Amino acid sequence: MKTFKKTCGGLLKDEYIDKLNAIWDEISTISNPNRIRILYFLFNQEQANVKEIHEKVNLSYPTISNNFKVLLKEEYVFKHKSYYYVGASGKIKLQLLFKLTDIFNIADNYQYILANHIVDDFSIDNILSFNYLKDSKLMQISRKDVFAIDKLLIDNMKNSKFLYFIFSELNLRYVEIISELLSEHIPVKLIIPQEIRVKFIDSFDRDLINKAFMDKRFYFLATSDKIHLNLFVNDFMMAFNLFHETGIVDKNNVIISNNDLSLKWAKSVFNNCFEKGGIKYGSLAE
Fold first, then answer.
1. pTM, entire model
2. Do 257 and 237 form a contact (C-beta atoms < 8 A)?
3. What per-residue confidence (pLDDT) applies to 16?
4. What is the rounded CA–CA span in Å between residue 52 and residue 56?
5. CATH 3.30.870.10 fits 113-285, yes or no
6. Please, what is the average pLDDT of the chain?
7. What is the pLDDT of residues 116-148, one digit of tens each?
8. Which residues of 84-106 are buried (b: 16+ CB within 10 A; e: fewer)?
9. What is the CATH class of 14-97?
10. CA torsion sign, 205 to 209 to 210 to 215?
11. Boundaries of CATH 3.30.870.10 in the chain?
């Protein structure tokens, strides 16, 4: 059995090493190409005997027999009389491995923006749900048009039925649109850096935000922990951009989607970031 060991000065915790080893064990069980063909065939059938597998999958009888020994031992497959079928546990494991493949493909597709960027704000669950981003698009912006992201977000913010928003720099146009949303009784949740908290609050009409706090329509976190992404999600769009490893925000690349699963994923990222340290305002502070 292949095992993963601590590397990079022990950065991999024991719990993650154990998880990686468990995943590797599962992958090793089905890594044989013939085994995958048999499993894929059975996965889509209620049951089949060796003759049917031989005819449909085009494998020799000895090959089928040898692979079934492993699959039966690891309980991916069960036998009833002369028929084989994938058990409930095997189906779940296969579906999870298919999902893992999707996640790897998406990570490869977005390698350009993920490489050399800080991704620490994504939880393990966020990463395992990367396949929710499969219909997303990468918007690349020229260095001459650095305000294109702000314009995109402002244009889409205006018609929001709710708004979740993480931003790293104070933009008075954001304050304007958020004020309009609050005056229209639209729920707003924000995460901002602690260093812009005072200027941010002072930019609002105090009566407006006090009423919004009381009505539980407006709440935000002024975080003392550094957040290395800007994220926008409303009822019809999500968008996010990351920070370079140098700590500077990347204003030239943004991932955008209108897909419902992407919106769900973005909300999850927001909620994860909201657990960071800082001062909470509004009903979430209760």
1. 0.68
2. yes
3. 59
4. 6
5. yes
6. 86
7. 899 889 887 888 788 888 889 988 888 778 788
8. bbbeeebeebbeeeeebeebeeb
9. mainly alpha
10. positive
11. 113-285
